[in-house]
Amino acid sequence: MTENIPRIREKVRESGADALLITSPQNRFYATGFPSSAGEIIVTADEAVLYIDSRYFEEARSRIKTARVEQLVNRAKSFEVMGEFLKKTGARTLAVEEMSLSHGQYTVYEKNLPVELVPGQHLMSELRAVKSPEELELLKNAQAVASRSFLELIPRISRDMSERDVATELLCLMLRNGADDKAFDTISVNAEHSSSPHGHPDGRKLKNGFLTIDFGACVAGYNSDTTRTLCIGEPTAEMERVYNTVLKAQLAVIDAARPGVAGKDLDGLARRIIAEAGYDGYFSHSLSHGLGIDVHESPYCSTASRDVLCRGNVISDEPGIYITGKFGVRIEDCIYITDSGCENLCHLPKELQVILA
Ligand SMILES: [Mn+2]
């Protein structure tokens, strides 16, 4: 796993920040390639120090090459050591992850460090939004595990199973195929329940209607995110019309996604296709989010988004139509933004697939 400390130091230098404090497990992992449940990293333009306790210290010191690793004994001592380091660098402000620190944690840092805390969340989210070639490989690998598992799942689905059974079976397949964990709780919703975009799978037996499955694998710290909507029994004309509308919007986004496109315009494109088919107002969530170490990260494509796509982004493309009391359809792939367009990370078929008819 790559250490991204050099990229972070460069970002700190470019932004003019005095120093950056990394506190979240995700950003710590991104920085060091080393998973840990605790620890803090201070990064300046010239150096980086990881403060970590005895549970991780030896392994961290032997594996991490781009940051100095210091063992921490207790909280009071850690503030003293971090404070001394900050003084030595001449830092007067410290950029922090203001969106993930609790109010309590923020207050403790503010009280115990000899610097002014300033917002720094955007530094890490901007960096993480642009994937390195190695990160792209990790994302493709997670997607491959999830896709293989889904293909193995389809012939195992039977009318004896519940939504929850489908989710459990898929999790077993993903773990057997090499996932370290699921990326998030699988959504498996059938018939009228499929009108809940993030419905919780229940214990009732499957019946005729759509079966929407939104699932992901986490492999080596990187996630996949995919949705397919299958049809149990033959679809009605309305079901086919809704499915094909969502598919048309989903494919149009793949055609349009490229560097320089605004997130809100991509969202608007899908929304317009759905509205023109007569389903204005039935696409009730945003089109897209970035994906990586977190399942939801920058950039975002929504009606309110101010993000503009650039090469290296990996984003979801997941329009849907949800008709309360009837059914819902969502189709989702994750795509990588290339120099001139995008590459779909997911190769699962998308035509309406009828099962158990
Ligand atoms: Mn998604």
Let me know the average pLDDT: 97
Pattern of helices and strands: HEHEEHEHEHEHHHEEEEEEHHEEEEEEEE
Strand content: 15-25%
Strand order of the largest sheet: 1-2-3-4
State the share of residues found in helices, binned by percent. 25-40%
The stretches of 5 or more residues where confidence is low (pLDDT under 50) are none
Morphology call: elongated
Classify the secondary structure makeup into a structural class. alpha+beta
What is the name of the CATH architecture of the largest domain?
Alpha-Beta Complex
What's the CATH first level of the largest domain? Alpha Beta
> In CATH, what is the homologous superfamily of the largest domain?
Creatinase/methionine aminopeptidase superfamily
Write the layout of secondary structure elements.
Blueprint: H1 5-15, E1 20-22, H2 25-32, E2 40-43, E3 48-53, H3 57-63, E4 68-72, H4 75-89, E5 93-96, H5 103-112, E6 116-119, H6 121-129, H7 133-153, H8 163-176, E7 181-182, E8 187-190, E9 209-215, E10 217-219, E11 222-223, E12 226-232, H9 237-256, H10 263-279, E13 288-290, E14 297-301, E15 314-317, E16 320-323, E17 327-330, E18 333-337, E19 342-344, E20 354-355
Parallel strand pairs: 3-4, 5-6, 12-20
Antiparallel strand pairs: 1-2, 2-3, 7-10, 8-9, 9-12, 10-11, 13-14, 15-18, 16-17, 18-19
Helix pairs in contact: 7-8, 9-10
Bound molecules: manganese (II) ion (MN).
Manganese (II) ion is lined by residues 225, 289, 316, 318, 332.
